Structures are given as C-alpha cells and as structure tokens.
Amino acid sequence: MRPPRLRLPPTRYALGAVLVGVPLVLALCGPLVADGAGPRTASFTLGDGHWLGTDFVGRDVWRQVLLGGRPVVVVALSATALAYLVALPLGLIGALTHRTWLEETLMRPLDVLLAVPSLLMILLVASVFSPGALGLALLVALVNIPDAARIVRAAAADVAARPAVEALRMQGESWWRIAVGHVGRSILRPLAADAGVRLTGVLYLVATAAFLGIGVAPDAADWAVMVDRNRTGLFVQPWAVVVPALLIVALTMGCNLLCDAALRGAPLRKGPRS
C-alpha cells in the first residue's frame, strides 16, 4: 500500500513558484535581453524613458536590475551546493563509522570553524585577499560547512542506530549502499528543510558581502550593491532600492515556501514495509 500524503493547497506551490521564478528568470535571462548602456542622465530621476528611473550615477535602473541578479543568485546557489557537497560525506561518515578517532578527526575541526561568526570570517579573509565571485562562493560555502555537516550527522545518526542498518551490515552490503541508499534517503526531509533555511542564510551572507563591497566592484550591477549605493536617494527615487530588495526577499521566501510544500507533500512512512 502506498504511504499517505499530506494534503496541501496548490496555492502554496503556485505562490512559491512565482516568488522563486520571477527573480530566477530575471537573474538568468536578464543579461541576455538587457539593452546596451545608454547615455547617463541626472541621478535619481523618474521618466525620460526610464520607467524605473535612474540610479545614483544616472544609469537606467531597469537595465541594472536585469544585469544585477546573476551574481547574487549564481554565487548563492553555488555556495549552497558546495557546502552540501562537503558536508554530506562528512556527516554520513561521522554518523556511520564505529571508529571514534575518525569521527573526532572529522568533526572537531568543524567545531573550531563553527565558533567563528560567519560574517567575521568573510571579513577577515577579505582583508587579506580580494575574492572575486568564485572566491566569495568558496568563502560562503566554507562558513556553512560546519553546521550543515553537524545537521547531516545528527539526522543520519538516528537512522544509523536502527536495526535495519545493522541488518544491512550483516548482509555484507557496501558502505555506499548503506549510507546513500538507505540512510541518505531516510534523511531527505530534514535535509530539504535545512536546505531552504540555509539558502536563505547564504543569500543573506552573499548580499551582505556585496553590500560591504566584498567580491564585487563598488559600481557593479548587483542587486545588493544597488541597495547600498542607492539608499541615499530612497525618498527621492525609491525604485532603485525597493525593486532589487524585493527581488532578494522574494527569492528567499519562495525557496522556503517550496521546501515547505515539498516536505508536506512527501509520503509519510509509518514503519518498515512488510
């Protein structure tokens, strides 16, 4: 018998898809349809062919919005994927190994990284090196690995303690089949919940770093940079700040709505199948 699914209003999926889709489409397709840079006009003005007005140096805000999403989105998604690429094997090995020394060797260095605030770590590294987009993605991934690995380990340790895992070991199943085929599949729901929250945190870090000028040029076409550089004209020409800020907020809210919808719609297992 198929496991039951929680009923969920389709509006949750639709709202999440719209909130994620709009900034993603603008970020990925915007540079392809953006017009060439026209002549600069007066700062913080509306009209004159600029339907979202101009920014602090007289550039068209709509063109900057089209060009400014890709750095934020690509860096955030890359950093999240890189963090899990390292955290998943570390957490699974720590949960499944019977060698205490191996678990301590893997997890204790992560505790040291976890003790340093994420933004402080990024600022310290940026004060020595000047990271580009790739360097910023690696830095954000690095500061997210410790707690992601601990969450994976905690979720996997509960599954690894079940009799089914010991039975698989006694049957001679490979470590890969046990870790990925059984334990990994069993922790998909907590990992999906963590992924939605983590992507929000990563977007916050990437946007904050760009706001502080880390990894991007001061006049770069970047949504976070737009919020920073145009805030002096917020009450004169608000669209230069409001539009990029709303796109960042929509992306984070949409990701969490979709993850929540996926979790509620996932099958609920009530025990091992007979």
Give the SSE layout:
Blueprint lengths: L9 H24 L27 H36 L3 H15 L3 H11 L4 H28 L2 H8 L4 H12 L1 H24 L11 H8 L8 H27 L9
Helix pairs in contact: 1-2, 1-10, 2-3, 2-5, 2-8, 2-10, 3-5, 4-5, 5-8, 8-9, 8-10, 9-10
In short:
The protein is built from 10 helices and no strands. It has 274 residues and is an all-alpha fold.
List keywords for this structure.
mainly alpha; disordered N terminus; single chain; 10 helices; elongated; disordered C terminus; 274 residues
First-last Cα distance: 10 Å
Overall spatial form? elongated
Query: How many strand units?
Result: 0
Uncertain stretches of 5 or more adjacent residues: 1-6, 268-274
**Which structural class matches the secondary elements?**
mainly alpha
Question: What is the helical fraction, as a range of percent?
Answer: over 70%
Arithmetic mean pLDDT = 82
Strand % is under 5%
Rg value: 23 Å
List the secondary-structure elements in sequence, H or E.
HHHHHHHHHH
Tally of DSSP helical segments = 10
Biggest β-sheet: count, sense, barrel?
none
Describe the fold and architecture.
There is one protein chain. This protein is an all-alpha fold and 274 residues long. Helix content is 70%, strand content 0%. It has ten helices and no strands. Helix 4 (118-128) packs antiparallel against helix 5 (133-160). It is elongated, with a radius of gyration of 23 Å. The N and C termini lie close together (10 Å). Mean pLDDT is 82; it is low at 1-6 and 268-274.
